[in-house]
Amino acid sequence: MNWMQHLPAFIIAIPLFAAFLTPLIDRINKKARNAFVLIAMAITFILTIILFKEVLEKDIITYVMGAADPTQAIPKQAAVPIRIVLEIDGINAFMALISALISLIGLIFSFAHIEERGGRFYTLFLLMVVGMLGMELTGDLFNLFVFLEIASIASAALIAYEFRRGSTTEAALKYIIISSLSALFVLFAIGLLYGEYDLLNMAAIADAIRTTGLSNIDKIALILFFSAFALKAGSAPMHMWLPDAYGEAPGAISMVLIGVTQASLYALLRICFTIYVDSMHVIFPAIIIILGLISIFIGVTMALIQEDVKRLIAYAAVAEVGYILLAIGVGLYGILNNEVETYARKALQGGLFHIFNDILDIGLLFLVASGIIYITRERNLNKLGGLAHSMKYTSILFLVGLAAVAGLPPMNGFASKIIIYESVYKVSPILSIVAILGSVVMLAIFVKIFHSVFTGPKITEYREVPKLMLASMLILAGLIIFFGLFPDVIINNVVNPAVNALIENTDYISKVMGW
What we know:
Layout: H1 7-28, H2 30-58, E1 61-64, E2 85-88, H3 90-110, H4 118-137, H5 141-159, H6 166-197, H7 202-212, H8 216-232, H9 242-248, H10 251-276, H11 283-304, H12 309-336, H13 340-376, H14 392-406, H15 412-425, H16 429-453, H17 467-485, H18 487-503, H19 505-513
Antiparallel strand pairs: 1-2
Helix pairs in contact: 1-2, 1-4, 2-3, 2-4, 3-4, 3-10, 3-13, 3-17, 3-18, 4-5, 4-10, 5-6, 5-10, 6-8, 6-9, 7-10, 7-19, 8-10, 9-10, 9-12, 10-13, 11-12, 11-16, 12-13, 12-15, 12-16, 13-14, 13-15, 13-17, 13-18, 14-16, 14-17, 15-16, 15-17, 17-18
């Protein structure tokens, strides 16, 4: 047996298998549990790297669970209604790579602060990873819904894991209600398309819509899909759950939740660029652009008035989602107007590159904030100060994250944002001006935070954060600086395959359908 042909299944199966074994190992030995979870997550990450390399060589990989030949094409999903189909191209592999990387880093960070009920925590953690990766690798709409539910339920449980404040329970409750609503929208939309086409496979549905044209049922399904995934992606004005969830979750989970959010953003990309792009009206990308601008505005303005350090970073995350939506909207608008090489490709490069950068930059800030809360037991900015005297490494790492989120050179945020500025300028200079102003305000906000938290006289003597926390932060900081110094390496070898997969949807449809 050639194990390489089962690679997509292994990426989902290994963390799933580990999730169920973790409670058993936890009863035997805590250190053995940590080692087991770390090995399982490290293997998953390595396999995503191999999968990405395979996609670069083969372009598209199809894996049908339960088939005699798992690599065969499935043109009609209705012929096998109970079967999971994994379809991996550049964008799937790109997102899976990001999710596995950020999960591994978050896992290392969690070892330093998760002490009670660790077996339950790591089981939920691995199930959340399974949900993320399943959403990103599946080529079937119903299985997309199933993995969305797995990720949502595990995430809600992890948000409420510590139960230290009443607001923590409120955040988890709000998250599960929002997740249930979005899942209901997704399921209703899937039902509409299945009833119309008797299909669940994304490529098969895309081919059917392209052949018959966009019906009223298709339009309703698109609106439902867009509402659900924009809600789960944290787009303003549907962002009400995000600051609570990110702010109240345990340290490592705040960062990994960004990956769950980006998995929903991926689902939105797949729906728009694969299934509907050939029949979509230009008003739709205009809506995405408007939502991006609103997200930037609300994110930076609400961050200005926050006193809780993690809620402030969470609102910065809303603004960063706005930059991604802005770039995606411009890219989609360019494709619909046959301006692919003029600005659409560039916009998508900036948007997808910023997806990676957003997780690294905001993730680093969340880890720093969580480290500060862990050491000081304080999250109010007005009650912190002078921490640079005791926490020199943490303060330097916060500066790295600050510069990256604000888009300052030579950090990675500058590399992706300058591409976004240039591409959206070709559609409207106003879009570029708003985006730049948002970054300027963000810089001012985080400079203020640094001044409040790290500078000034020493108030209390604190120790530095644990070594595992520092190691996680250093990995993120190293990636941020590397991406900023060598953006062409990342764009050419990692981002461009994902961009090509979005633009060349006909290749995806034809290869999956077995033409």
